Amino acid sequence: MKSVIVGTAGHIDHGKTALVKALTGIDADRLEEEKRRGITIDLGFAHLELTGAKDEQLRLGFVDVPGHERFVRNMLAGVGGIDIVLFVIAADEGVMPQTREHFDICGLLGIERGIAVITKSDLVDAAALEALKNQLAQFFSGSFLDLAHAPMIPVSTKSGAAIEELKTALANAAAAAPVRNADAFFRLPIDRVFAMKGFGTVVTGTLIAGRVRKEEEVEVFPSGKRLRVRGVQVHDQQMDEARAGQRTALNLASVNKDELARGMMLAAPTVFRNTDRVDVALSLLKSAKPLKNRARVHFHCYTAEMIAEVHLHNGKQLAAGESGFAQLRLSQSALLLPGDRFIVRQFSPVVTIGGGTVLDNAPERRRTEDHESFLSTIRSSEPQAVLRARILRRYDFGISLEALVAETGLRPEMVAKLLEGDVANGTIFRLGSFYVHAPSLVSFGFLMLETVTTFYRENPLVAGISKERLREQLGLTHPKEVFAAALDRLVHEKKLQLSGELVSLAGRAVTMKDDEAQTKMIIESAFAKAGLKVPALKDVLAGVKVDKGRAQKIVTLLLREGTLVKLSGDLVFHRDALSGLKQSLCDQKRNSDRLDVARFKDLTGVSRKYAIPLLEWLDRERVTRRVGDARVIL
Predict the structure, then answer these.
(1) When you count CB atoms within 10 A of the terminal residue's CB, does the N or C end of the chain come out lower?
(2) CA separation (Å) from 592 to 140, 229, 585, 588?
(3) How many CA atoms, within 13 angstroms, populate the side-chain half-sphere of residue 305?
(4) CB contact set of 592 (below 8 Å; sequence gap of 6+)
(5) Is it the case that residue 34 has pLDDT exceeding 60?
(6) pLDDT higher than 70, residue 155
(7) Euclidean distance between CA atoms 282 and 260, whole angstroms
(8) CB 368 within 8 A of CB 413
(9) Is 91 helix (H, G, I), strand (E, B) or coil?
(10) Where does the pLDDT of residue 68 fall: very low under 50, low under 70, confident under 90, or very high at 90 and above?
(11) Rounded to whole angstroms, how far apart are CA atoms 85 and 106?
């Protein structure tokens, strides 16, 4: 059964709630104050099942909104997720202030289907009714309610006149409405929270994307709390699953109703991220005052409402009737995705002044020169081009599959499918879970090569730069996958070479002056002749002719080559001496595989000063293993 959401719109006391009751038999006014005052204050809900022209079964969920100017914020909480609007105008009053404001809101939200319903038609004569039809035809001209593709139906909820005709028109509109994507990630803006005796906390909302099942886990935005769905209802019926396009009630476990509120959103867990700023395409109504840069506005998206500061991308103000790119900096974090429609209202006095579409929920902190081009691309291009643009703007940093999903709302398998052609032809590289633009990776490689070259220029006596230090100099913000790919590429091209953790220029050998080469031989010889009874490093360096800085670099070179091995601060051994020690212990194992400190000292002829560091080194090398105060020779 196809599910479609129908919303009402129109001025106060024009008969929206009565119309919903005439269609469904359900009084959408649920609050005592609403019944006492005879006006709708908050959102009301009803449902109706119809049969389409080709026997298609249609389930219509109704969201009845208040018409009073004081409750426009409540109206906005309900109108965001609708597929069809019943735009209500009373025959005895015609176009009124909230008629205009609600009509503007529907246009700004991009609603594409509707029916103009003239209520209270029994209160005027035929001539007055015809005059109103002509007035409305002009009022709606060029909009989604233009008579060329939207019916205009006079009805009477008292007599029931034309109610069946309206149902037929609703069935036709519902049949033509696109089916919401139930295969997308689940998102449900919360419009009502209450506690039910015996059940606990219940939330309701219009399921705008995806599906949700009983016993599934959902995430609350912006709090990030995870909750289990204990039960699912669709139009007052218990269900195992709710799908996009349905009015949905969820019974949630382990949460108090005071922890949830209208404006929050439930979504698939571990997929999306909160944001407190979005880049948008913003349009002002012709009736609005010019909007200045950095002006504060009331921001409404689905059921969420908060203050936002408008940062225009071009110019100091946006004129009435104009459109442009802007960044909205939000007073609260929220879950927003590209394509989400929003309304902005003037900060004071509070009137609707414009609206638009979210383009980017992860904008760069600093705007680049090609930022306008990027926004134009993601506003009007196909998904594949949008993904390319998002990868390209990260330059040599790349972007993870997880981040692409969070930025677009596309499923991982869809992202991979859309990019497989670019990956196959080499314009985009996939490095594990990261995507990076191929030319950008090449540019990053040039920077890496330049960094290594500069390092050698400043450190002529070293064998190479460690991978970690190279990564630090290039910026740790680069993902490890991107760093590794750029390095592998340069090694493959024989521009760099790897020796363990050291990176060096291909074919690069350390060049020394005569006095430096002589110093290297003196240092190596001093430790080679000493065996295990080595002198202090500082004493050896005190006897060479080169300055202290160059002498220390020569020691570093010997250590990196593995000629010398440092066991502790000033305790350095020649590798041949340590190799001989290992062999000696292997020979001793034939007699006994156990060794204490005293026996080790007798075996090697060294004092305790050397014995303890050497034994600890043997433990690290897995030649021995400490057991209590003794060692076992492995």
Answers:
(1) N
(2) 101, 66, 10, 6
(3) 17
(4) none
(5) no
(6) yes
(7) 30
(8) no
(9) coil
(10) low
(11) 8
* Range in 28-32, 193-197, 548-552 with the lowest mean pLDDT: 28-32
* Residue 193, pLDDT score: 94
Element (DSSP H or E) covering residue 87: strand 84-90
**Identity of the amino acid at 178:** P
State the DSSP H helix or E strand holding residue 101, giving kind and residue range, or none if neither. Answer: helix 97-108
Amino acid letter for position 439: P
Any idea what DSSP says for residue 232? E
Write a three-state SS string for 126-146: HHHHHHHHHHHHHHCCCCCCC
Instruction: Assess whether the previous peptide bond of 151 is cis (omega < 30° from 0).
Output: no
* Residue 174 pLDDT exceeds 90: yes
Specify whether domain 187-267 bears CATH 3.30.70.260.
no
Domains 275-360 and 514-633 share a fold: no
Closest CA to 573 of 604, 535, 629, 603: 535
Please check the confidence at residue 27 and state whether its pLDDT lies above 60: yes
Pick the CATH number of 2-176 from 1.10.260.40, 1.10.3720.10, 3.40.50.300, 1.10.10.10: 3.40.50.300
How far apart (Å, rounded) are the C-alpha atoms in residues 529 and 522? 11
- SS3 at position 180: coil
The 3-state DSSP composition of the chain as helix, strand, coil percent (nearest 5) reads 35, 30, 35
- 547 Cβ contact list (under 8 Å, min separation 6): none
Residue 521's pLDDT is what? 85
**Reported pTM:** 0.79
Identify the pLDDT of residue 37.
Answer: 64
